[in-house]
Design brief:
The protein has 340 residues and is of the alpha+beta class. The chain has helices spanning 54-63, 76-90, 94-98, 151-181, 186-191, 261-266, 311-325, and strands spanning 38-39, 44-46, 66-70, 106-109, 133-139, 194-205, 215-220, 226-231, 237-241, 244-247, 255-259, 276-279, 286-294. Helix 2 crosses helix 4. The N and C termini lie far apart (55 Å). The chain binds 2-oxoglutaric acid (AKG) and fe (ii) ion. Fe (ii) ion binds at residues 220, 222, 227, 276.
């Protein structure tokens, strides 16, 4: 595919801009690993139903580690406005977006890698693990005491604050049902979910001529307790289930909930931290909004399968592995082996 100069590539990080006149797609044959096996019905949890969500939640968390949330109570109007604002902001020149590094709305591209504090670390390009995306990282704890002079940013900040409040409400309700299913004592329920730790990430996956060779985000599990996603209508999210990659169809009025590594450890491996990935698209950009929530910083996660650890210890091990080996090892680093 050859792109013309009239495209919106001034808004792309330079590394993601195609070179005019060059057919980037042709020199690459698609990699079969990028195929998904099928579309499938993702299990649904209905928060509005009279039944307690714990009824079907237990089995879904054990077998899937993810579900589609319906009747979540987030107004459609809020979702639409968030996507419209995100679209406008991402369409700005790359240089203007780069200026957003000293405010609660932090711009990054190429890698969603995090530092301990939940702030994004701009690691710079490295072809092997370059994600074909850019994003805005918004820790919710300090988003509300900031005011932007720029009206677009200020209304985006305020929409994110409102959206963040909904996400906190949802995380609390979902976690409560899980804690009940897992018979957590009240002390665990309290320290295993810290609503003030949550942050939002708004992503724009960029059009990619080598869509059969690159990932929006490569296969991974989230490090969080829970992650809640909203995606636009473009599609690309896939989950791994029974040795197959399944497309998670975009359905605009639903949210996708993923269980993260912390939840798997807390549940003694009864629940699954789901493997997932995002494909890129040749023709369309894709916007998604993720909410990620973690345990209280000094909460020690105790289980029969893992050495006791805190989330910052997990994060430090993950960062070291990423730096030295280029991959996340995650939970296996803490799993009790026969030698222990
Ligand atoms: O954009 C998406 O749908 C998924 C994002 C994701 O997996 C992540 O940020 O960990
Ligand atoms: Fe993820």
């Amino acid at each position: 595919m050859t792109y013309s100069n009239s495209d919106n590539f001034h808004s792309y990080p330079p590394l993601f801009r195609p070179i005019p006149g060059v057919d980037h797609g042709e020199q690459y044959s698609p990699n079969p690993e990028f195929d998904s096996d099928s579309e499938s019905d993702i299990p649904v949890v209905d928060l509005g139903s009279s039944m307690s969500p714990a009824e079907n939640l237990s089995e879904i968390c054990r077998e899937w580690g993810m579900f589609r949330l319906v009747n979540h109570g987030v107004p459609m109007e809020l979702l639409t406005q968030l996507h419209e604002h995100a679209n406008k902001l991402f369409s700005l020149d790359f240089e203007s977006k780069q200026a957003l590094t000293t405010t609660p709305i932090f711009y990054f591209w190429g890698s969603p890698a995090l530092t301990m504090s939940g702030n994004v670390q701009q690691t710079g390009p490295c072809a092997d693990n370059l994600n074909w995306l850019e994003g805005l990282n918004v820790p919710l704890a300090n988003n509300s005491n900031f005011e932007y002079d720029d009206p677009l940013l200020e209304s985006f900040r305020s929409l994110l604050e409102e959206y963040g409040n909904h996400q906190r409400r949802l995380a609390k309700a979902i976690f409560r049902a899980m804690a009940e299913d897992l018979n957590f004592p009240p002390s665990k329920s309290k320290s295993y979910l810290s609503l003030s730790s949550g942050f939002l990430r708004v992503y724009r996956y960029l059009r990619c001529p080598m869509s059969g060779r690159r990932w929006g985000i490569d296969s991974h599990t989230d490090s969080s307790v829970l992650s809640i996603l909203h995606q636009d209508q473009v599609g690309g999210l896939q989950v791994f289930k029974n040795d197959k990659w399944l497309d998670v169809k975009p359905i605009y009025d639903t949210l996708i909930v993923n269980l993260g590594d912390m939840m798997q450890a807390m549940s003694n491996d009864s629940y699954i931290s789901v493997k997932h990935r995002v494909r890129v698209n040749k023709e369309k950009e894709r916007i998604s909004i993720g909410y990620f929530v973690f345990p209280v910083e000094d909460a020690v996660i105790k289980s029969s399968r893992y050495r006791p650890f805190t989330y910052p210890e997990f994060q430090a091990a993950k960062e070291l592995d990423l730096k030295t080996m280029g991959v996340k090892i995650g939970l296996p680093r803490f799993r009790i082996t026969e030698d222990d």
